[in-house]
Write a structure and sequence with these properties.
Four Helix Bundle (Hemerythrin (Met), subunit A); CDP-OH_PTrfase_TM_dom; 82% helix; phosphotransferase activity, for other substituted phosphate groups; mainly alpha; 9 helices; transmembrane
Length: 190
């Protein structure tokens, strides 16, 4: 099996996870959607391990891997917003979809700005401070694990699905993701 095939498979799989969670109107189906996102999380590391094991790592392979990760970052939060809308009986439930979209966009936007900045001005110190995880201090590491969909976000979403408080998940992560986005962009552009 080739690493790029696994990356493409995980991209397709995360779209399916998003559709299942977004279409859910009850906890059982939502948990299946969550499990599919969890499966993506497991697949996310497989492509790189295969590439290293077979010694066939390529720049294009890294692009395929990033494609899967970027899709997951946005779709995870957006799907949570749609699910919260589906289970709500509030006339303002549509706001959950907007909040999920803003939260997902806030995960992606700083990465897009950082990649553009790297291409245009190089890997200068302010960009390294945002992108080089080996230089992260304790606070940045905690923030990364609390906000990364490969970290604590997935178990927190499962808890919120099981206890029917996905709307609070969306509010919390929208605020956190927007704050981190603003700080990241400030650090990149200063």
């Amino acid at each position: 099996m080739k690493p790029n095939f696994v990356s493409i498979l995980s991209t397709v799989e995360v779209v399916i996870a998003s559709v299942v969670l977004s279409a859910s109107h009850n906890i059982k189906i939502a948990v299946i959607g969550w499990l599919l996102f969890f499966l993506w999380n497991l697949l996310d590391g497989v492509d790189g391990n295969i590439a290293r094991l077979k010694k066939i790592s390529t720049d294009l392979g890294s692009v395929y891997d990033a494609m899967s990760g970027y899709a997951a970052m946005f779709l995870f939060f957006f799907s949570a917003g749609i699910y919260a809308f589906n289970i709500s009986d509030s006339k303002y439930a549509y706001i959950q979809i907007i909040i999920g979209a803003i939260s997902g966009m806030s995960e992606l936007f700083p990465r897009l700005v950082m990649h553009k900045a790297k291409n245009e001005v190089g890997n200068v110190s302010n960009i390294k401070s945002v992108s080089n995880k080996s230089e992260f201090g304790f606070t940045k590491k905690v923030a990364l694990n609390v906000t990364s969909i490969s970290g604590l976000v997935q178990p927190i979403l499962l808890f919120c699905i099981l206890f029917s408080v996905t709307n609070w998940f969306n509010y919390f992560y929208c605020v956190v993701n927007v704050m981190i986005m603003l700080v990241s962009i400030y650090k990149i552009l200063k």
